[in-house]
Write a structure and sequence with these properties.
By secondary structure, this protein is of the alpha/beta class. The chain is built from 15 helices and 19 strands. A five-stranded mixed β-sheet has the order 2-1-5-3-4, with helices on both faces. Helix 5 (about 160-170) packs across helix 7 (about 250-260) and helix 12 (about 460-480) packs across helix 14 (about 520-530). It starts with 5 loop residues before the first strand and ends in a 7-residue tail after the last helix.
Length: about 550
């Protein structure tokens, strides 16, 4: 029986036959005029495929553009590859000691480079021009499969010892390696088919490194964003990166090495001791400021705000103060007064959902020494209630207030500035897979939330992944604009946490059905977790911030 030489492809509900072996890039080009953003990948029946992959079956394709999260990740990864190839080509491979892509800041990537060169804007301009030459030439990005031993030897010979060490812990017998002209590298994730897709970027000198500015692919991609970093957040990230480097745990391979040598317990305890010292330092600073009566704590989802508040309260107690916890959720407006969003749904995250004036009246009265009956919000009834919870502030009393709007001056507008000490808390991870594959801080928080949602709310991983984009939108509107107004940035990331979370989260991610949209993200996270050796929870203290997510802590939820 003669086999047909064509395959049927369904795109946007329309079927069309293509010759067997047609690259998906050709099929995407036929559909591009129906999409406002560049198509960068295809979703073939629930599996992401690069555009240079050949058609080998009947299938339904969903086009992944720069607007979609996998598309944005692919663009970022590809432009990093382009920058690296141009940097090595411009400077000379023998003069480059190390280039490390460290973290995202103000929608740009902060990068440090070491070697026999002067890292200034003049050099960066030459590298950027080389990048643009490669874009104009539409140089193919090739992918080849090497046996792991050959890949290890390739990267060792080129001085990329972090990659060689990382691959030693991979079980797979083969590794995909990408090449751009003579430059080869290993990346966790997909690439665009050639450099012509990478039109928008800029290099800018910053601090002891430089930033690779990226476009807003969801808005106006032809405009590279102006680089206006939150300096306090940058400093917290930078300090954490330098500490990790000093500990020789700046990437997954170095941490796996420590775990495989039996040093996990020492690593856990030293990390916890460092965090306890940082919390103690914050408490000491608060105690020195005699006028402070309100400690205002805010941060994005799954930053560990609850446990941090308890641990800070313990440290304040140790300094002779009497902390009282207040949840701003108790100042929600009654349900009938809650504003709605553009979709007609209740907007619980906007400042308009809070009874700002009642909060300020109560806090001012407390500051003046009056006795105040504090409210309790009944979420089932959607209304505030008063149950005789009375509070009067004495000389040693201090309020520890946690909530999404605590850094927003509009929320506490009636309180004197000197009476407030504002803390921004976030999981600012600086541990990366290797020098060229960064771990987004949002991934660390998402893993935390997947485990906590499953343990405390009965949500499966699919539900948490589905909700995550709306959580992120709320953070971008209500938290991130105020992060640099804090008196102090507290970094709640612990180097060992992904290794700890791995055995908890993996089964939850494997349970995500293959026929749903969230499967692609679940699969990406599983690939990410596969790089880590696990560590058991036995030696994690009951006071650890991570106990908020895995359970077994000594603080109330």
């Amino acid at each position: 029986m003669e086999m047909t030489s064509t395959r049927t492809v369904i795109v946007d509900g329309k079927a069309r036959d293509y010759p067997l072996g047609t690259p998906y890039q050709v099929i995407a080009a036929d559909a591009q005029d129906r999409y406002p953003s560049d198509i960068l990948l295809v979703d073939r029946d629930g599996k992401l495929c690069e555009l240079n992959k050949p058609l080998d079956r009947d299938c339904t394709l969903r086009m992944i553009t720069a607007v979609d999260r996998p598309g944005r990740q692919t663009y970022e990864r590809s432009v990093v590859f382009l920058m690296l190839a141009a940097f090595y080509d411009t400077v000379g491979t023998e003069r480059v000691q190390r280039i490390s892509v460290e973290y995202s800041i103000s929608r740009a990537l902060f990068i440090r480079a070491k070697g026999d060169f002067i890292l200034d804007q003049a050099l960066l301009d030459r590298v950027e021009e080389r990048m643009r030459q490669l874009v104009r030439q539409a140089v193919p990005i090739r992918k080849s499969s090497l046996c792991t031993e050959d890949a290890v030897e390739l990267f060792r010979s080129r001085g990329m010892l972090d990659k060689a060490q990382l691959l030693r812990f991979r079980i797979s017998s083969r590794v995909n390696v990408y090449s751009l002209e003579d430059f080869s590298d290993y990346f966790y994730g997909y690439m665009v088919p050639d450099t012509s897709y990478l039109k928008w970027f800029a290099l800018q000198s910053f601090e002891d490194g430089f930033v690779l500015r990226l476009p807003d692919l969801r808005g106006h991609p032809r405009l590279a964003r102006a680089f206006t970093p939150p300096i306090k957040v940058f400093q917290a990230l930078h300090d954490a990166a330098l500490r990790s480097e000093a500990l020789h745990i700046s990437n997954v391979a170095e941490m796996n090495q420590r775990i495989s040598q039996g040093d996990a317990t020492q690593m856990i305890l030293s990390q916890e001791a460092l965090m306890e010292k940082q919390i103690g330092d914050i408490a000491e600073e608060i105690a020195k400021r005699r006028d402070v009566r309100f400690v205002m704590i805010a941060g994005p989802s799954s930053s560990g705000k609850t446990t941090f508040s308890h641990r800070l309260s313990t440290q304040l107690l140790a300094r002779g103060m009497r902390p009282h916890a207040i949840a701003t959720d108790n100042y929600f407006k009654n349900r009938e007064d809650t504003p709605r969003d553009e979709n007609g749904q209740y907007d619980f995250e906007g400042l308009g959902a809070m009874d700002v004036e009642q909060f300020n009246r109560d806090m001012v009265r407390l500051l003046n020494g009056e006795t105040v009956e504090l409210p309790h919000f009944n979420f089932k009834k959607g209304a505030r209630e008063y149950n005789g919870d009375l509070l009067t502030l004495g000389p040693q009393d201090i309020l520890v207030i946690e909530g999404i709007h605590c850094l927003n001056d509009q929320f506490s507008h009636a309180l004197p500035k000197e009476s407030k000490y504002r803390i921004y808390i976030s999981c600012l991870t600086t541990l990366n897979v290797d020098d060229h594959n960064r771990i987004p801080t949002t991934d660390a928080r998402l893993l935390r939330r997947i485990e906590r949602d499953a343990r405390t709310r009965g949500y499966n991983a699919r539900a948490t992944i589905q909700l995550w984009p709306s959580v992120r939108r709320g953070e971008e509107r209500n938290i991130f604009p105020h992060q640099d107004s804090a008196d102090v940035i507290f970094n709640s990331a612990l180097l060992y946490e992904t290794a700890l979370l791995k055995p908890y989260v993996e089964p939850l991610l494997f349970a995500v059905p293959k026929d749903c949209e969230e499967y692609i993200e679940a699969k990406r996270l599983l690939k990410f977790l596969s790089y880590f050796l696990p560590v058991p929870a036995d030696d994690v203290p009951r006071t650890s911030l991570l106990r908020e997510f895995i359970g077994g802590g000594c603080y109330p939820g």
